[in-house]
């Protein structure tokens, strides 16, 4: 078995362009399973693609926008209603526990005060790294909208490393995140249109020589990226399995 298995569960933008689901990437190493982001449609995606939500051990959140962490209330309550006992760790930017609890309360009033039947823990992700089961997870600030507390993530397990940009415009932090990774999953929201706080394909292509990951996969695809273009790098799609 590969050190990390990866499957894209959601590759779309916030608005479902092209019928794509919101951001969610599934990782497994041994018996340990994690999600990179958990957009509002992620529970649907897991059940569509045969991923058992109650077997997810950790959710790693890049930033506090609904298309990246809005699925957490559904994941938590699905576990509550279906008798989950497996612990769930949620990692993210500073104040991750407060943000998740507030979103849980806004989505299902009263739910934030319910005692879960399973252990629920929170970890703040940073450049120094944290250990979650067999994963070492580190994070760097990236350039997204003020208040989103956006991070790019780097996940290491045994001899494999997956890097993930989250949402960001071009920033030198992407060079550091991608360094030596086996796969860099990177936003390419638009083709050549400059959208504030987001990355377009042309800008990414201009900086590609500085990215030293072995592979690059484009995700968070908006309408400009869903029409045919000649591209150097592959596009993610919902359900895509990526060998590592």
Provide key terms for this protein:
globular; 26% strand; 244 residues; 7-stranded mixed beta sheet; alpha/beta; single chain; 6-stranded mixed beta sheet; 6 helices
Account of the 3D structure:
This protein has six helices and 13 strands. It has 244 residues and is of the alpha/beta class. It has a single domain, classed as Ribonuclease Z/Hydroxyacylglutathione hydrolase-like (Metallo-beta-lactamase, Chain A). The strands form two sheets. Strands 6-5-4-3-2-1-13 form a seven-stranded mixed β-sheet. A six-stranded mixed β-sheet has the order 7-8-9-10-11-12. Helix 5 (173-178) links the parallel strand 10 and strand 11 (183-187). The longest helix has 12 residues, at 96-107.
Please work out how many helical segments DSSP would assign: 6
Helix fraction by DSSP (H/I, runs of at least 4): 10-25%
The CATH superfamily bears the name: Ribonuclease Z/Hydroxyacylglutathione hydrolase-like
Terminal residue distance: 10 Å
Quick take:
This protein has helices at residues 42-48, 66-69, 72-81, 96-107, 173-178, 201-207, and strands spanning 5-10, 24-29, 32-36, 58-60, 88-92, 120-124, 130-132, 135-141, 151-157, 160-164, 183-187, 216-219, 241-242. By secondary structure, it is an alpha/beta fold.
